[in-house]
Amino acid sequence: MTGFFQTAMRNRSFATGFVITAMVVLMAAVSFLWTPYDVTDLDISAKLKAPGWSHWFGTDHFGRDIFSMIMVGARNSIAVALVAVIIGVGIGVPVGCWASARGGLLDEALMRGNDVIFAFPALLSAVMITAIFGPGAINAIIAIGIFNIPVFARLARGAALSLWPRDFIMAARAAGKNKTRITIEHIVPNMANLLIVQATIAFALGIIQEAGLAYVGLGTQPPLPSWGKMLNEAQTMMSFAPHMAIIPGLAIVITVVGLNLLGDGLRDVLDPRLVRKRD
Amino acid sequence: MKTMKKLFAAALVTTALAPLVLAGQAIAAKTSLVMGMALEPPHLDPTAGAPAAIDEVVYANVFEGLTRIGSKGEVLPALAKSWEISADGKTYTFNLHHGVKFHDGSTFDAEDAKFSLDRARAEGSTNAQKALFAGIDSVTVKDANTLVVQLKTPAGNFLFNMGWGDAIMVAPETAEGNKVNPVGTGPFKFGSWVKGASVNLVKNGDYWGTPIALEKATFRFISDPAASLSAMLAGDVDAFANFPAPETMPQLRADPRFKVVIGSTEGETILSTNNTKPPFNDVRVRRAIAHALDRQAIIDGAMFGLGTPIGTHFAPHHPAYVNLVDQYPMDLEAAKKLLADAGHPNGFKATLKLPPPTYARRGGEIVAAQLRKIGIDLEIIPVEWGVWVPEVFKAKDYDLTIVSHTEPMDIGIYSRDAYYFNYSSDAFNATIAKLNETTGEAERYALMAQAQKIISQDAVNGFMFQFAKAGVWNAKVNGLWENSPVQANDLTGVSWSD
């Protein structure tokens, strides 16, 4: 594993992405133990301060410390996006594998079901789900997670279909292993690279979607801060407190770019064919 | 080649004339106005619903009553040009204007007036303010232009009550259709309603009274404060009677294109409390909340300083106002002690349902943070008006909510049976009953003061602040109201300079 990591760090986009992502994760982790100020504590008399020594990123219209809010917001974004990816992988991959292993009518049915979910723009459907079940972080996770399912189901099915006719699978079948065991022991490990790359991308998308839902008021609810809600609140104050919009905006951009670089780098590192081409 | 020359000449002439045509347009003052509103009315019949947005479109513009409320809160004659009050204060004889026509061409006379009042006070009436008519004993038509209203007891504010939007005059033939096609006697006729976007009014050429300057008025509904700001800056909207983003006032004030006028409203903005739901049924808990609220911080944080702290449900600019702000000074220790006495030494959990306006959403976050300091942990539940009205206002399914009560002189709501606060006090009800019968100003003010003190004593709701009217309009627009003594956007005196 150390060997792999050292090789990977030689890849420039992986290294950049990894550092950025690690920083964001670290910030989120530290926020559980310490933040410069309490994000639920309002100090109206200190409102709308520009970035400076006492408040690194300034304060918002309630006098909350924006740096602390970015830290706690990172925790939210990561938690929502991560669980949404886990839902997508946890349900999507078994569905895809099952469809490819059984084939026939079941395959058709599952994949058409996928198409139905795919047919809706993800954010729009997430808005619908949170509108029905009420706003909040949990419902945001479910909404985003549901739309990760078909992404992973398709990927897993496609990868599995290309693996089934391969010689080593044939050998396993000839040795008498059943389809479930083959899927678990041979198919899934052989598509792991693809899944990891896709998970990184889905993670980045999840962060954007969480911010989008929070922006329209359907994500994390106050008093907990979230990057999307910070952007929403900043809108009418851009002319006199631009830091309120710029800072959460940058937080989202940097995190998403970091994750995309990480995913890009991972693909290069994990797919030997691509690497050979580059060399 | 010849045609080319002709074309060229035509082009030249057109180009030369164009500035003249444009100049011609600029000389004549504009006769249309686009007014921005945050909330779209559910329908357009002020006699069949409480939402302020209905009156804000049709009051004085489309519909008129026997009297009307002026920009300073004074009672002015409207469809009744004059009136006589009998010596015992119980008989009102209204002399109606001659030659008044409804927008459908039918004549307005005393029969229509009788119909309107009887309809509003009837058993199955859907009028949102039936209390306004409760004192009426009988309505009789003396002749086509004379209406006699007999009251059960003398009522000091009867003429004011008749000026409310809920008391406007309607025609029997069209009354039922007023929700979608309002037919009144006003200087504007209903033009069209683009649901979700705007209501358009056009000038009523047959208007009986002083002709208006505007040919056309459009009410545009923009719920998002940021979009309101863009619309104002882009000139898509000429005026906002009440701009939804108070934080933008300095920016708009600095812009020479706009005039910013901060005025008063009748909006008592309160932390409404469900007085029968434990633990809020204990007055000590409600007083603890009152001690925990820092009103100035709420005004500064939510409204950027626009608003006046209140200690009771009464407008501070009213002469009978009693300043009770210091009855429960901000004192966290006193609040914690009251909570402990009430059996909640460690506080408790409750919900805070917040309707969409900025004052509620931002105010709610601040209130939640302030109450957290005494151990009351509020879960914030944002709701749309479409949910708030049936769930909170009608079904009373809530612990706490924040809303601005914009009706004028509405302290009487605390004596209503089954109003959504679920408050009931015999002492208060007796005071209001007496107030309704009293006509002398000094005695009325004394009773109003007593009523204010009772609800403050009982800490019925968390009294926060009087809503300020943040008016923003094009600097060339004249005649818009500075204050809003009633829920209205009276456009009858509006004109453009130039």
Fraction in beta strands of chain A: under 5%
Indicate the mean pLDDT of chain A.
Answer: 89
Shape designation of chain A: elongated
Tell me, what is the CATH class of the largest domain in chain B? Alpha Beta
The largest inter-chain interface, given as chain pair and residues per side, is: A-B, 20 and 23 residues
| Assembly state of the chains shown | heterodimer
CATH architecture of the largest domain in chain B: Roll
Structure description:
The complex is a heterodimer of chains A (279) and B (498). Chain A has helices at 2-9, 12-33, 66-102, 104-119, 122-133, 137-146, 149-163, 167-174, 179-215, 227-234, 243-270, 272-278. With 279 residues, chain A is mostly helical. Chain A is elongated. With 498 residues, chain B is an alpha+beta fold. Chain B folds into three domains: 32-39 and 181-263 and 469-496, Periplasmic binding protein-like II (D-Maltodextrin-Binding Protein, domain 2, 3-Layer(aba) Sandwich); 64-173, Dipeptide-binding Protein, Domain 1 (Dipeptide-binding Protein, domain 1, Alpha-Beta Complex), CATH 3.90.76; 267-468, Dipeptide-binding Protein, domain 3, CATH 3.10.105.10. Chain B has helices at 2-27, 52-58, 110-121, 158-161, 225-234, 249-253, 283-292, 295-303, 332-341, 358-372, 385-394, 426-437, 441-457; strands at 32-37, 67-69, 75-77, 80-85, 91-96, 136-143, 146-151, 188-194, 198-203, 216-221, 239-240, 258-273, 308-309, 348-354, 376-382, 400-405, 462-474, 477-478, 495-496. Chain B is globular, with a radius of gyration of 25 Å. The two termini of chain B are 46 Å apart. Residues 19-26 of chain B have low confidence and may be disordered. At the A-B interface, loops of A face helix 5, helix 8, helix 10 and strand 15 of B.
Short descriptors:
heterodimer; A: about 280 residues; mainly alpha; B: about 500 residues; alpha+beta; Dipeptide-binding Protein, domain 3; 3 domains; 11-stranded mixed sheet; 4-stranded antiparallel sheet; 19 strands; about 25% strand
